[in-house]
Amino acid sequence: MPKIKTIRTKKAPEGWDLIEPTITEIGNQIRDVENQAYSDKKKPEQFWEIYKLHHQRSRYIYEMYYYKKEITRELYEFCLQEQYGDATLIAKWKKTGYEKLCCLHCISKSQHNFGGACICRVPKAKLEEGKLVQCKQCGCRGCASGD
């Protein structure tokens, strides 16, 4: 997870006031989740909510720039530079087949047996009928683009 910076190194570009409330709200939710007690959950499950919120914040920046076109390139690059969004995850979303990717752990070959991908990357049509699939790393229930 990227560090949350309290002091900006440079002034925010024009249009920051448009996305700042959403970015700070998600940042506050991440902080609240980090401060919760996790006595009843397994170790990997403790980070699932953080992964989900991190994905949500990166997806918001991505959609505001590429689909809605409501922010400028300068503001988009500022958000990535200040680590409000994950630049490598956004780069994967631009590629065919990775449009719904939940996190980079799911496609990392070193994280899985036999150099494969995560179970959540398998299209639901290829799985058994009624089988519930959930990634052990991030808690995703399916991020294959073919679904």
Automatic annotation (TrEMBL):
GO terms for cellular component: spliceosomal complex. It is found in: Nucleus. GO terms for biological process: mRNA splicing, via spliceosome. The keyword Nucleus applies. Its main location: nucleus. Pfam families: BUD31. InterPro entries: BUD31. Keywords: Nucleus. Belongs to the BUD31 (G10) family. PANTHER family: PROTEIN BUD31 HOMOLOG, PROTEIN BUD31-RELATED. This is G10 protein. It comes from Paramecium octaurelia.
